[in-house]
Amino acid sequence: MGSKNQGNRSYRRTAKGFLRKSESYMPIRLAGDLVLVAAHGINIIVMHLALQTDIMKDKDLTEFHSLQWKYITIWNLAFQITYLLMAIACDISSLFKILEENKIVEQIKRYRKTFFSAVVWPSSILVSSLFWPIFLYDRELVFPSYIDKVLSTSSNHMIHSFITVVVVWELITFPRSRPQSHKWNLMQLAVIYVAYLVVFITNYHITGLWPYPLLYSIYGTIYFPLFLFAVLIIYLIAYFIQWPLVSLIHGSSKKAAE
């Protein structure tokens, strides 16, 4: 009698707790993802409108605007929105049995976990963990006060704090398991790291501008490569720290339902 009732529950025992089946999470996760992507969308509109005013004739703000795609914050924002749209499409497909046998949809569903694990989670944690300590120490090093003329405190928190809310929500509501090999994930992480270095270093040699004032002070000194190395270490820590959290929340099953 007892074992029969246990079999009807939507939990599966793992080595360290219980893992709720993904189907039980989907409606809640989908609703949450819709709210999160809407919040990002509203903030993007607000930021875009702020950058269209006459105040953008200010030299500092003109340079700031020209560098917008050189900020890792903007890259991460693009990663998060792409992921949320991907997650929404996957869950709608599964919940409403839409295009379930479509090969493209199946590939997106398979890649979703990898994209979150290798790209979205580590990038988001990196941005928040780097930005706020430096900002609190001396904001002029990463987010000069003149930016307040076009980006409000709310927008600042949306792109540097809210991003953590997004990935924690997904961590809790999207069951995953530790991969048997981290090679593929780390390759993608390395590609993003190198690509960003190429973009902002190339931009400096072409325009003479760094996206972050801190880099003007340390470029040409031993602190520049040390800083880049420290960023890489934090990036790797951000990636690996997710797996103990996954095990703590969802258990240590090797085959979490997608």
* Percent range of helical residues: over 70%
Based on CA atoms alone, the radius of gyration comes out at: 21 Å
Order of helices and strands: HEEHHHHHHHHHH
Strand order of the largest sheet: 1-2
- How much of the sequence lies in strands comes to under 5%
What best-fitting shape do the alpha-carbon axes yield?
globular
User: What oligomeric state is this?
Assistant: single chain
pLDDT < 50 runs, ≥5 residues: 1-20, 254-258
Number of helices: 11
Span from first to last CA?
30 Å
Identify the notable features of this structure and list them briefly.
258 residues, two-stranded antiparallel sheet, mainly alpha, disordered N terminus
Describe the structure.
There is one protein chain. By secondary structure, the chain is mainly α. It contains 11 helices and 2 strands; from the N terminus they run αββαααααααααα. Strands 1-2 form a two-stranded antiparallel ribbon. A hairpin with a 2-residue loop joins strand 1 and strand 2. Helix 5 crosses helix 10. The two termini are 30 Å apart. The relative contact order is 0.15. The N terminus and C terminus are likely disordered.
